[in-house]
Specification:
- By secondary structure, the chain is an all-alpha fold.
- The chain folds into two domains: 63 residues, Arc Repressor Mutant, subunit A (Orthogonal Bundle); 136 residues, Tetracycline Repressor, domain 2, CATH 1.10.357.
- The protein contains nine helices and no strands.
- It starts with 39 loop residues before the first helix and ends in a 14-residue tail after the last helix.
- The relative contact order is 0.11.
- Keywords: DNA-binding, Transcription, Transcription regulation.
- InterPro entries: Homeodomain-like_sf (IPR009057), HTH-type_TetR-like_transc_reg (IPR050109), HTH_TetR (IPR001647).
- It comes from Nocardioides humilatus.
Length: 243
C-alpha cells in the first residue's frame, strides 16, 4: 500500500504541484504501525522522508550549524534511535535530502526543456528550462534556501556535490545549437554562464526574495543570449604584457 498523494498538509495548507524535500509538514502523513496497512519497507521510507523534510526546514530556518539532530528529530516526530537506524550523522542526512531534491529538480527542468514541439529552437527550450527551475524553487522556498544558501556549509563533500550538479547543468547549454546570431556555446564559457546564474539565484534567495525568482527570467535570458551570441568571439587581448 502506497501513501495517498495529497495537495495539502495535515494543517490544510496548500502544497506545491511539485514537491521538493521540506515542502511538507515533517509530521504529516503520520505512520500507520507495521501490520496495519504499511509494510516495514514503506514505514522506513516514510521515516526517511520525514527526516529529509525536517532537515531541510530546520537548516533553512536555523542555518546548517544551528540544525541539531535532536531538533531535526523533534521536527520529524521520530526518536534519536530511529534517526540512527537510517543515518549515521547529520551530514549523511543532509546529503540524502540534497540528492533527493536535486534529482527532482533535474527531472523537472529536463522535462520542461524537452516539452516544446519538435523543431523548437534550443534557445527557446533553454528559456523553458530556466523558467521551470525558477518556478519550482519559488514554490519550495525552504529547499531553495537549503540548496542555494546553506548546503555548501556541509564541508568538502558538499562542495563536490554542488560541482557535480553544476557540471550536469552544463549539458543544458552545451545542447544549444548555433541559430542566427547565436554561436555554438564555447565549452569554456558555459561554466561561467551556469556559475553566474547559480550565483545570482543564491544571492536572490539569501536576501529573502525567493518568491521573486520567476521575475528574473528576462534578465537571465539576456545574460544567456549575450554569452551565446558572442560564443567563440573575443575582443579582449589576453596576451601577457611585454616589457
Amino acid at each position: 500500500m502506497q501513501p495517498t498523494p495529497h495537495t495539502q498538509d495535515d494543517r490544510g495548507r496548500a502544497l506545491p504541484a511539485v514537491l521538493l524535500p521540506g515542502a511538507r509538514d515533517a509530521r504529516d502523513a503520520r505512520l500507520t504501525p507495521v501490520g496495519h496497512g504499511y509494510t516495514r519497507e514503506e514505514v522506513v521510507e516514510l521515516q526517511k522522508n520525514r527526516l529529509r523534510d525536517a532537515i531541510v526546514q530546520v537548516v533553512a530556518e536555523e542555518g546548517f550549524d544551528g540544525a541539531g539532530i535532536k531538533t531535526i528529530c523533534a521536527r520529524a516526530g521520530v526518536g534519536l534511535a530511529t534517526f540512527y537506524e537510517h543515518f549515521h550523522t547529520k551530514t549523511e542526512l543532509l546529503f540524502a535530502a540534497y540528492d533527493a531534491g536535486v534529482a527532482v529538480l533535474f527531472d523537472y527542468v529536463s522535462a520542461a526543456y524537452e516539452a516544446p514541439p519538435e523543431g523548437t529552437e534550443s534557445i527557446a527550450r533553454t528559456e523553458a528550462g530556466i523558467l521551470a527551475l525558477l518556478e519550482i524553487l519559488a514554490d519550495n522556498p525552504a529547499f531553495a534556501t537549503f540548496l542555494l544558501v546553506e548546503f555548501e556549509k556541509g564541508g568538502q563533500e558538499a562542495h563536490g556535490r554542488v560541482e557535480d550538479a553544476l557540471e550536469a547543468a552544463f549539458l543544458l547549454f552545451n545542447d544549444v545549437e548555433a541559430v542566427g546570431a547565436f554561436g555554438a556555446p564555447d565549452p569554456e564559457l558555459v561554466p561561467m554562464l551556469v556559475g553566474g546564474i547559480y550565483s545570482h539565484l543564491s544571492r536572490t534567495v539569501r536576501i529573502g526574495r525567493t518568491a521573486e525568482l520567476p521575475s528574473l527570467l528576462p534578465a537571465l535570458m539576456k545574460f544567456s543570449e549575450a554569452v551565446l551570441a558572442g560564443a567563440g568571439v573575443s575582443t579582449i587581448n589576453l596576451r601577457p604584457p611585454t616589457h
